[in-house]
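Entry 14. Structure prediction run on the chain below.
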Amino acid sequence: MVIKKAIASSSATLVLLLSACTLGSTADKNATSAEPSPTPTVFEQAFSSDTRGEAAALTLSDEKTTKSFRADNIGISFESTALADARLDPSSSNLDDLLNSLGSPELRFGGNELDRRVFWTSSGESTNKPEQVAVTPEDLKRLKKLVDVTGSTVTMGIPLGKYEPKRGADMAAHTVDILGDSLVGLAIGNEPNGYKVKDVPNGAVRGEDWNKEKYVQQLEGYAKAIHEKRPDAPIIGPDVYDGAWMDAFAHSDVKKKTAISQHWYQLSACESDEVPGRGPEAQNLVDPLAKKSAKKNLGIGKDHADDAGLPLWLEETGPTSCPGTNDTSLTNASALWAADYTLYAARLGVERMAMHSMLGACEGGAPMSLVCDPADHGTQSDTFQGRPHLAAMRLLVPSTGGTFTKTAVEGGGNMSAYTVVKNDGETLVTTVINANDAAKSGGNPVSLQMPKGFAVAKATQIHGPSNEAKNATSVIPAHRLPDDIPYSGATKTASGSASADSGDSELNIDLAASSVTVFIMARK
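Output returned:
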């Protein structure tokens, strides 16, 4: 059942553009309409209280490192059953608008349903089981319409739940032919190291004798069948978190290996409420331990990718892998984490990254999804909306195409910053994640020391009333800085503006807590 919404398809994108708008919230139906506020023309923050947080000094550089932030570092992973959803067609929903708000995000189709529910057919066969979803060439053609609009590249999962190399090769060949240059990788199976696990929907797909050696044997069988049809088809794998299985893929006889694909979720200790820790608590997303865990686990993938001479693609990730409707993913902390984690992973050397998502309901669906359908659970609409962490990902678009430089952060408490240089050295983009909790302090005085000759052209921000606030992440669109910049620090430059009209290279500004702020700088 599809409920048509009397809303323009661009409305969800506008949610991300309008000042002080909140993602995922529902207005009070009994509220009295207020007079509309004037549209802001300068960057104006909302502080929850006095800015009594620890002062921070940020020193930026325009000297390039070896790591870049690519358009593909922003991406969405969908369950492969979504291929059969008619709303992938740009004429059938606003999904293309949401994706376009992320630049040209990578799209990945896989997930647990790939090996347990997807039934590929190019000849009109009926599915064998009631839980199966038929995927056909027509579905791939619909996907092609979407990627033509968004400019996305695609990685496509080929089912390995049942060993059918002929059927898998047929799906691969159609995918190569239909998607063309948009296709950058075929993944044979999803998380094959978990094929014996029974406590997942639709259960185990292999017996107790399943191991890495049998995986490689079947992987090679599929790859051979695929390359007999399409010799240049790019193969990625193994779509796991386990380094030993990465080695198994890397050392296999599969030709046209294109990338090591890893899966990893920040919070996976589902029964734990320990803070700091890896249980699904909002505080754990912004605790410094989160970065330590990411560095350790993504480092495993990077080491194996480097040993194989292949790039590392993080094909499935997210704030938490815990089942059910865990509300941690709906908090403002999830947005802060998404911005920080995405940039941090790229700086570690991850070249593609996709946040796992679904096209399900906002109420009762998976909260970790970047997008959701506001229609009642069990029904569908043609108007998707973004979760808090979608707003964070959109904030990173100005950094795409840039090369990381060194950014030093002194003081500031729980604060991180990343800078990229782009446009032949004419533009710097700095992203500051202020994860100090707005429930405890309104913000922090920050001194931003820029390389000589640069000035802030625009700033934009997402923020919330606290780290743990749910569905309360608001967006301040990109505007020039105001003439009177709020600053509660002890020292201040002559003008404090570091604008194109001043001679300063230092910006003094109070930054709201529980926020992500992006400064776009240009040479004067």
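The chain has a mean pLDDT of 91.
Filed with the rest of this week's runs.
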